[in-house]
């Protein structure tokens, strides 16, 4: 064990030990997505404290624990992955009912989002037991934080997590067509051996900016933003660019330019109808964003109170 992690274990004990960690509870523990230093002090403490650790891959988790200087026997590690999660959850519930503390970790990042864990948590809740979160690394939020792809306008704020698209070409193409009309940022995940096919499918989005984030937090981390139609060319620019796990962000669509018709319709409706009704009808008639029209109507109302009734 390196001296740095020895110090981290001591710091974890000093910083986190005072908190109460109830017995008979499942602890959902986020682990690093590449850089071992991205573990939290509370995660280190709980992994030491846990009577058992349920994990996506016992060999991977054992290696992770050893890197931190945490010793667990093979009997303390329980395999809970996508192929056995429903059955393995029963074994975890039994241990919790015995009053044991069980931690769950996926191979990397936060369990239960794209990795296994959701069915395990559901089973724990169904048994009337507690599941406690220990937040930490996530490839999704890591990529979002540096892409500048989450808009804050009322029309396209927030983001949509779509995960992995279908593997078959026709189904993937259909999924991309559906996402093309989504105005918000869309978060996709992709494996290295399918990133070329995904890039080709996304080309139909034309000039819509797309951020490719690969090998996040690792030595060869790379984050690049290009128009969707140029993704394939960028990937082919270097063999290295198709390696590693990918987070793919479709940036928000640019708001359509308003030709004035929607505002004219809105102004006429506001003369006869309550504000919310006028906004709803104007959006239905013109296809303009209801949120955008509502903001405009409120601004008019503040400046010219007689323009409409609340």
Q: What does this entry look like structurally?
A:
- The chain is an alpha/beta fold.
- Helices cover 41% and strands 16% of the residues.
- It contains 12 helices and 10 strands.
- The chain has helices at residues 3-16, 41-49, 58-68, 85-97, 118-126, 139-147, 169-180, 195-202, 231-236, 261-270, 275-286, 290-303; strands at 25-29, 52-55, 77-79, 102-105, 130-134, 159-163, 185-190, 209-214, 222-227, 246-250.
- The strands form 2 sheets. Strands 3-2-4-1-5 form a 5-stranded parallel β-sheet, with helices on both faces. Strands 6-7-10-8-9 form a 5-stranded mixed β-sheet, with helices on one face.
- α7 packs across α8 (195-202).
- The model is unreliable at 305-310 (pLDDT under 50).
Termini separation comes to: 66 Å
Structural class: alpha/beta
Low-confidence stretches: 305-310
The main sheet orders its strands as 3-2-4-1-5
Overall mean pLDDT score?
91
Order of helices and strands: HEHEHEHEHEHEHEHEEHEHHH
Overall helicity: 40-55%
Task: Tell me the number of strands.
Answer: 10
Number of helices: 12
Strand % is: 15-25%
> Main sheet, how many strands, which sense, barrel?
5 strands, parallel
Describe the global form: globular
In angstroms, what is the radius of gyration? 25 Å
């Amino acid at each position: 064990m390196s001296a740095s992690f020895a110090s981290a274990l001591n710091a974890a004990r000093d910083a986190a030990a005072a908190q109460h960690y109830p017995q008979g509870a499942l602890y959902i523990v986020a682990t690093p997505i590449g850089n071992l230093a991205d573990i939290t002090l509370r995660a280190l403490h709980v992994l030491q404290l846990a009577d058992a650790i349920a994990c996506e891959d016992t060999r991977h988790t054992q290696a992770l624990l050893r890197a931190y200087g945490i010793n667990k026997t093979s009997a303390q590690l329980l395999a809970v992955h996508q192929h056995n999660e429903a059955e393995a959850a029963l074994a975890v519930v039994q241990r919790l009912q015995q009053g044991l503390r069980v931690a769950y970790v996926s191979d990397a990042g936060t369990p239960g989002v794209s990795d296994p864990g959701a069915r395990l948590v559901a089973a724990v809740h169904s048994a009337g037991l507690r599941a406690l979160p220990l937040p930490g690394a996530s490839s999704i939020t890591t990529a979002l934080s540096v892409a500048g792809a989450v808009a804050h306008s009322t029309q396209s704020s927030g983001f949509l997590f779509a995960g992995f698209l279908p593997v078959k070409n026709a189904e993937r193409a259909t999924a991309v067509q559906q996402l093309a009309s989504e105005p918000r940022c869309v978060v996709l995940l992709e494996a290295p051996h399918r990133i070329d096919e995904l890039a080709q499918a996304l080309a139909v989005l034309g000039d819509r900016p797309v951020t490719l984030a690969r090998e996040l937090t690792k030595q060869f981390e790379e984050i690049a933003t290009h128009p969707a139609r140029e993704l394939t060319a960028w990937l082919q620019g270097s063999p290295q660019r198709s390696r590693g796990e990918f987070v793919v962000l479709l940036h928000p669509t640019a708001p359509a330019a308003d030709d004035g018709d929607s505002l004219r319709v809105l102004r006429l409706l506001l003369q006869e109808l309550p504000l919310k009704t006028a906004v709803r009808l104007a959006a239905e008639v013109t296809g303009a964003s209801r949120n955008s029209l509502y903001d405009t109507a409120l601004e008019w109302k503040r400046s010219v109170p007689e323009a409409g009734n609340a």
